[in-house]
Amino acid sequence: MSRVSARIHGLDTLRALAVTLVVLHHYVLFVSGTGTFGWVGEIGWVGVDLFFALSGYLIGNQIFQAQRSAGGLSLGRFYARRLLRTLPNFYAVLALYALWPAFRGDAPMLPLWKYLSFTQNIGLEPGTAFSHAWSLCIEEQFYLLLPVCALLAAALGGREDGPGGSRLRRVWAAFALAVAAGMAVRAGTWLHGQDDGHWLHFYYKHIYYSSFCRLDELLAGVALALLKNFHGGIWARLMGQGRLLLAAGIAACALALRCFLADHYGLWTTVFGFPLLALGCALLIVAALAPDSPLHRIRVPGASSLALWSYAVYLVHKQVSVLSAQPLEEAGYGPGHPLTVVLALAASVLAGWLLFRLVETPFMRLRERYVPGNSRGSSLAAAVR
């Protein structure tokens, strides 16, 4: 199956939406400093959460499918495919930050080992160079641990044939405990931070960027993959409720965003807002997969291309927007001027496309040639990513 034919338009629409929201949000934060895009720019950070949910579903689905195959899951193949997918682009952009001071501007670099070990997000100081790679750190940590957890769960034994199997019950119990633990960690950290004199700095450093506090969407995505692969009857019924799922997903996301807009840094929003947002993202993903959902059926022009470039665009967009706006502001076109906005955003997409074509694409071809699947003995015909 080719990469093109394997793509699902609904998921591409969600990916394109996610990267668009993040780009607009970062333009407001790091370029214009004003409400350039209204409330959309203010809540654009949720694009990262949507990316998390998509990653949880897609990677979880790959792992569970490989586990159920004749060869079983190969950790070596899985890690090789993930590293070939994520590292080349990341290293290329990291080199720009590390070797070209004009590119990073006044933002200080962290020790290089923090970037290379994907531990940058742990206690991350806001305002440092390449700070938006914090989300990639969480995803890489997730890629490292999830397949190991899946293999450990399989090794525990117990009845697994059917939704009522003891192994599946333990897995779902572990999911519930993980969600509850994340809420407890956020609550405890929030209460501890009330004594800090720089509340927003504390919030982002110890809650927003924290691996333990930001697992909700990843877990929601993995839960969907678990449903699809081990609860076929439930999944089939869900696939027949696309319109209802889309409406429910929009409603859950709208309610979560209302909470964040009203009291973004409050205790209740911090504890319960992220699980609610994770639920909304999960419902949107199921709606994107359900054949009768408009999200699945309607092909948004340009969404597939933007989704394909989304990882590259995410990595380069922030600094490209900053650098593009500077000469325009010197020429009399401020960061809020329509010309500056259009040119800076276009430059971000163009830079992402170049990174995709020059770096990501060659390594993806190598991956499909030498590591075509996640299971032992995968053949080229089995590659679907």
Question: Any overview of this molecule?
Answer:
The structure is a single chain. About 75% of the residues lie in helices and about 0% in strands. It is mainly alpha-helical and about 375 residues long. The model is unreliable at about 1-5 and about 380-385 (pLDDT under 50). It has helices spanning about 5, 10-30, 40, 45-70, 75-100, 100-105, 110-115, 135-155, 165-195, 200-210, 215-230, 230-240, 240-265, 265-290, 295, 305-330, 340-370. The chain has one domain.
Provide keyphrases for this structure:
disordered C terminus
Q: How helix-rich are the residues, as a percent range? A: over 70%
Main β sheet profile: none
The count of β-strands is 0
How many distinct domains? 1
Structural class based on helices, strands and sheet pairing = mainly alpha
Strand and helix map with partners:
Layout: H1 3-6, H2 9-32, H3 38-42, H4 46-68, H5 75-99, H6 101-104, H7 112-116, H8 134-155, H9 166-193, H10 199-208, H11 216-230, H12 232-239, H13 242-263, H14 267-289, H15 294-297, H16 303-330, H17 338-370
Helix pairs in contact: 2-4, 2-14, 2-16, 4-8, 4-11, 4-14, 5-8, 5-16, 5-17, 9-10, 9-11, 9-14, 11-12, 11-14, 13-14, 16-17
Describe the structure concisely for a colleague.
The protein is 74% helix and 0% strand.
